[in-house]
C-alpha cells in the first residue's frame, strides 16, 4: 500500500527536483567558467527571454503553424499508414512485390528530400506537411502491417467456430487486436511528424517555430534560441501526451496501458 | 476392436430408430444419437508426403453422454475434434449431429455448426471484453438483445463459479478461471454438443483436478453431451461414460471402454480398485502404441 503511494508520488517529486538541480548546475557552470552568453546563456536569461517570447503573439502564430503542419502531416500519415499497412498485411502478393521498394524507401534519408519538396510545393506549409507525413508514415504503416498479421490464431478459431461473418471477425477481433499496434505506430509517428515539420521549416519558408529557431540563430540571440527550443519541446510533449491519452481511452485493456498503471501505482 | 465396432454400430442403429420417435427426453444412457461418426478419415497431402492422420473412425454418442477420447500425441485426436467442430473437413466419411450432416463436401453447414460449443486448450478469450462480454459473445454474434445477453452471461458466470466476476477482464483472472469463462462461452448458446480439446492441458495438476470436478458438475447440470479430448488417463476415466482410445499412424479407434461408475463421481473413485484397473489397462494399451 505504502509502496504504491510512494510509486505514485515519486515521479512528481523527482522530476522537478532533477530539473532544479539541472538549472542550478547550468547556472554554476556558466558562472564558474565565464562562458560567453552567445554560447550558453545563463538559465535566468533564458527564462527572461522565454517570458518575452511567450507573451509575444507572433510566437503563437508560429507555434500554431508548426502544430498545424505536424497534425496535418500526422493525420495524412495515419490514414495512409493504416490503409497501406492493412493492405500489405492482408494481401501477401502485394507485400511481396512491394517489399524491395518499401525497404529502399525506408533507407532513403527522407530529410534530404526537403529541398525537392520546396521546389515542388513552395515555401508554404504544404512542403512541411508532406515532409512530416513522410516521416510519420513508415512507423505507422509497419506497425499496422505487423498488427494485422499478429491476430491470434486461437481467437480466429473461436470466431470461426462461432460462424462469425467477415465483418464480425473484423469488428470483434481484427480491429481490436490491431489497435495496440496502431497506437504504437502513432506514438512513434507523432514524434517524427514534429521533426519533419521543424526540419522543413529550418530549410525554407518564414513561418513556424523551426523558422524562429533559425531566425534567432541568425540574430545570435542565444537566450531566445533556447527559449524557442523549449517551446518546441513543450509542443512535442503536448502532442505525444494527446496520442498517449487517446490510447489509454481507446485500449484500456491492453498491457501497454494497464502495465503503465501498475508501474505508476 | 471388431467386437467394439459391432457394439457401437448396433448402438448407432438402435439410436437412429429411437431418434425418430423420441422427443425431448432427459439425459439418460442410451438416449438418441447425438453424434454419429461414420467411417471418418483424414488425409493430409503435401507435395512430399501423404499422411493418413485418421482412418475408419466409427463412433456413436448418445444424448447426455460424456465421451473421453484419449491417445498419444500425434494420434489425430485434435484433428478429429477440429473436424467435429466444423474447422477442418474430413477426407472420408460422414459426421451426423442429430441426424444432420455437418459437412457438405469441404464446407461446414453453418446451421449445424451453430449447434456446437467448442472449448480449446487455450481459453482464447478476447482481452478487450469483460468476462460477461466474452461469455455472451456467441449470443452477440447471432444477434441476441443486450438484456438477454447480460442475463445469460450472469447465469453462466454463476454456473461456472465466476459469480461476481462478470465485469472483470481476462487479464485479472487465473488460468483456471479463464478456462471457466471459455466453458461458459461455449455453453452460452445451449449447444447440443460440447467439444473440448484438452481444455485443462495448460493448467497445473491441482487446478486441473478441481476443474474436472467442476466440469462434471456443469455437464450434469446442463445435461450436456460432451466429447472430451485429453492425453491424461485419469482425467479421461474420471470424466467419461466411455473412454475411446485412439491409436496413432493412422489414427484409429483401438478400443472403447465403458466406465461403470455412476456420475457424478467423487474424487475418491480414483482410489477404487476398478478405477485403478481401468487406468492400468489403458496405460498398457497406450504403451503398446508407443512400441508399435
Automatic annotation (TrEMBL), chain A:
GO terms for cellular component: plasma membrane. Residues 63-243 form the ABC transmembrane type-1 domain. It holds the Pfam family BPD_transp_1. Signal peptide: none annotated. One of its GO terms (biological process) is transmembrane transport. The chain crosses the membrane at residues 70-89, 101-123, 129-151, 181-204, 224-243. The keyword Transmembrane helix applies. It is a multi-pass membrane protein. It is found in: Cell membrane. Keywords: Cell membrane, Membrane, Transmembrane, Transmembrane helix, Transport. Belongs to the binding-protein-dependent transport system permease family. PANTHER family: ABC TRANSPORTER PERMEASE PROTEIN HI_0355-RELATED (PTHR30151:SF20), ALKANE SULFONATE ABC TRANSPORTER-RELATED, MEMBRANE SUBUNIT (PTHR30151). This is ABC transporter permease. It comes from Nonomuraea glycinis.
From TrEMBL, chain B:
InterPro entries: AAA+_ATPase, ABC_transporter-like_ATP-bd, ABC_transporter-like_CS, ABC_transporter_ATP-bind, P-loop_NTPase. Residues 1-10 have a biased composition (Basic and acidic residues). GO terms for molecular function: ATP binding; ATP hydrolysis activity. Residues 1-30 are annotated as: Disordered. Gene3D superfamilies: P-loop containing nucleotide triphosphate hydrolases. Residues 35-273 form the ABC transporter domain. SUPFAM superfamilies: P-loop containing nucleoside triphosphate hydrolases. Keywords: ATP-binding, Nucleotide-binding, Transport. PROSITE patterns: ABC_TRANSPORTER_1 (PS00211), ABC_TRANSPORTER_2 (PS50893). This is ABC transporter ATP-binding protein. It comes from Nonomuraea glycinis.
Amino acid at each position: 500500500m505504502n509502496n504504491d503511494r510512494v510509486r505514485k508520488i515519486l515521479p512528481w517529486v523527482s522530476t522537478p527536483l532533477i530539473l532544479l538541480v539541472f538549472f542550478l548546475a547550468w547556472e554554476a557552470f556558466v558562472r564558474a567558467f565565464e562562458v560567453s552568453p552567445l554560447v550558453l546563456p545563463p538559465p535566468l536569461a533564458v527564462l527572461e527571454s522565454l517570458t518575452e517570447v511567450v507573451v509575444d503573439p507572433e510566437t503563437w502564430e508560429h507555434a500554431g503553424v508548426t502544430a498545424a503542419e505536424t497534425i496535418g502531416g500526422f493525420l495524412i500519415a495515419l490514414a495512409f499508414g493504416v490503409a497501406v499497412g492493412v493492405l500489405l498485411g492482408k494481401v501477401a502478393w502485394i507485400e511481396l512485390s512491394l517489399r524491395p521498394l518499401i525497404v529502399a524507401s525506408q533507407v532513403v534519408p527522407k530529410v534530404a528530400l526537403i529541398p525537392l519538396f520546396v521546389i515542388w510545393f513552395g515555401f508554404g506549409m504544404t512542403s512541411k506537411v508532406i515532409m512530416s507525413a513522410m516521416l510519420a508514415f513508415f512507423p505507422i504503416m509497419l506497425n499496422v502491417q505487423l498488427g494485422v498479421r499478429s491476430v491470434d490464431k486461437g481467437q480466429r478459431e473461436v470466431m470461426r467456430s462461432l460462424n462469425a461473418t467477415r465483418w464480425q471477425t473484423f469488428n470483434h477481433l481484427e480491429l481490436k487486436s490491431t489497435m495496440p499496434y496502431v497506437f504504437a505506430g502513432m506514438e512513434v509517428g507523432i514524434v517524427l511528424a514534429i521533426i519533419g515539420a521543424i526540419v522543413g521549416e529550418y530549410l525554407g519558408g518564414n513561418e513556424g517555430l523551426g523558422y524562429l529557431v533559425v531566425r534567432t540563430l541568425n540574430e545570435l540571440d542565444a537566450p531566445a534560441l533556447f527559449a524557442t527550443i523549449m517551446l518546441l519541446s513543450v509542443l512535442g510533449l503536448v502532442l505525444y501526451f494527446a496520442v498517449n491519452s487517446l490510447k489509454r481511452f481507446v485500449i484500456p485493456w491492453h498491457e501497454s496501458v494497464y502495465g503503465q498503471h501498475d508501474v505508476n501505482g | 476392436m471388431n467386437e467394439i465396432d459391432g457394439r457401437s454400430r448396433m448402438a448407432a442403429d438402435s439410436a437412429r430408430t429411437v431418434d425418430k420417435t423420441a422427443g425431448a427426453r432427459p439425459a439418460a444412457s442410451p438416449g438418441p444419437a447425438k453424434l454419429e461418426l461414420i467411417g471418418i478419415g483424414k488425409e493430409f497431402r503435401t507435395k512430399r508426403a501423404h499422411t493418413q492422420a485418421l482412418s475408419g473412425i466409427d463412433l456413436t454418442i448418445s444424448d447426455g453422454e460424456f465421451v473421453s477420447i484419449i491417445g498419444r500425441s500425434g494420434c489425430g485426436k485434435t484433428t478429429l475434434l477440429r473436424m467435429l467442430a466444423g474447422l477442418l473437413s474430413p477426407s472420408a466419411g460422414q459426421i451426423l449431429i442429430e441426424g444432420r450432416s455437418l459437412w457438405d463436401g469441404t464446407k461446414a453447414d453453418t446451421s449445424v455448426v451453430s449447434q456446437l460449443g467448442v472449448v480449446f486448450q487455450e481459453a482464447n478469450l478476447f482481452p478487450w471484453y469483460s468476462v460477461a462480454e466474452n461469455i455472451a459473445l456467441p449470443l452477440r454474434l447471432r444477434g441476441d438483445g443486450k438484456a438477454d445477453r447480460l442475463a445469460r452471461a450472469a447465469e453462466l458466470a454463476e454456473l461456472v463459479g465466476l459469480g461476481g466476476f462478470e465485469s472483470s477482464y481476462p487479464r485479472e483472472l487465473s488460468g483456471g478461471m479463464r478456462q471457466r469463462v471459455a466453458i461458459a462461452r461455449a455453453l452460452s448458446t445451449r449447444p447440443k454438443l460440447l467439444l473440448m480439446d484438452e481444455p485443462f492441458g495448460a493448467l497445473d495438476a491441482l487446478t486441473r483436478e478441481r476443474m474436472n470436478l467442476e466440469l462434471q458438475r456443469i455437464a450434469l447440470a446442463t445435461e450436456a453431451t460432451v466429447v472430451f479430448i485429453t492425453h491424461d488417463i485419469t482425467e479421461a476415466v474420471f470424466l467419461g461414460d466411455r473412454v475411446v482410445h485412439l491409436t496413432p499412424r493412422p489414427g484409429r479407434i483401438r478400443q472403447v471402454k465403458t466406465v461403470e461408475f455412476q456420475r457424478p463421481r467423487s474424487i475418491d473413485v480414483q482410489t477404487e480398485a476398478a478405477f485403478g484397473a481401468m487406468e492400468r489397462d489403458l496405460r498398457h494399451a497406450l504403451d503398446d502404441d508407443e512400441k508399435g
